[in-house]
Amino acid sequence: MTMTRRYVQDLQDGETIEEVFLLVDKQLRANRNADLYLLATMRDKTGIINGLMWNVSEESMAQISAGDHVQIKGKVQLYQGSLQVIVTRITKVASDNLDPEDFQPTSSQNVSELLEQLKSRLLGIDDPQLRSLMECFLIDEDLMDSFSRAPAGVKAHHAYQGGLLEHVVRLMEMAWRIGDLYPEVDTNLLLAGVFLHDLGKVREMAFEGAFTYTDEGQLIGHLVIGVEMINEKVAEVEKLTNEPFPVETALRLKHLVLSHHGQYDYGSPKLPMTPEAIALHHLDNFDAKVHEFARSIEDDPNTDSHWTPFSPRLDRKLFKGAN
């Protein structure tokens, strides 16, 4: 292992590398001749890179699993606009002498400050019953700890620890600022919906080591999990206040969660049917897309080109300009 760590963001086309990464995903695939090869997704705090290892066997790859730290030896190459590693050796290494922070991407913003911003906005809601419900979420220490550390996605937008909190706080600031422009949108409901819309991701994803989907996440998904969490906290707030929670308010909150993807094709079981729901959908999409565009440009290894490579996910190239 090299003395000075080579991070993903520093890798160059053509270099030989021997380094330790976190194995995010491991897939054995067969080529046209039915020979097995390894497709490994690896990560450190600066980014993700794929590794390919030819002519492997199930037995030889049984020693490594997603979530392991692995030492790899191989050659970096540029393929279809992205760097990858052609791996010649991969072995599991003990994590005892490794610094966990080398492998966990985190928000560049101060998480405790973001959390205070979030609490300030939610406790500023002037509908007393809705504010009481928000307080029930905020006093759940385990939930808020997970919420503070969760990414907003495994690979796409805000895919780093604290990413979900960063995404939600930015949406809250946007929602707050449009309040005067759109008086027909209930700002109280919209702020609560912003907080709740992705809250199910704390159970949809595992993010202690590699960012992966839990069984609950794969089978149910964060929209339905979010509705379950609302039901749980509504029952709690009714017990604490000894008053029934308004039925319509609960319905409107659940609708915000279930419709925020905006289209059936994108996984929403319901289309937005309230002013708050359509506002949340577009604010959410706006933040996610701008963030993804900016990261794609920032992370592009082709420094000489004015354009990024074609992105199948975005269905386009992105213009970087001459600088």
Automatic annotation (TrEMBL):
Q: Which gene encodes it?
A: yhaM_1
Molecular function per GO: hydrolase activity; nucleic acid binding
Pfam families registered for this protein in UniProt:
HD, tRNA_anti-codon
* This enzyme's EC code(s): 3.1.-.-
The biological process GO terms on file are: rRNA 3'-end processing
Stretches assigned to the HD/PDEase domain: 160-298
- Name it: 3'-5' exoribonuclease YhaM
Enumerate the UniProt keywords alphabetically.
Hydrolase
Name the enzyme group at the top EC level: hydrolase
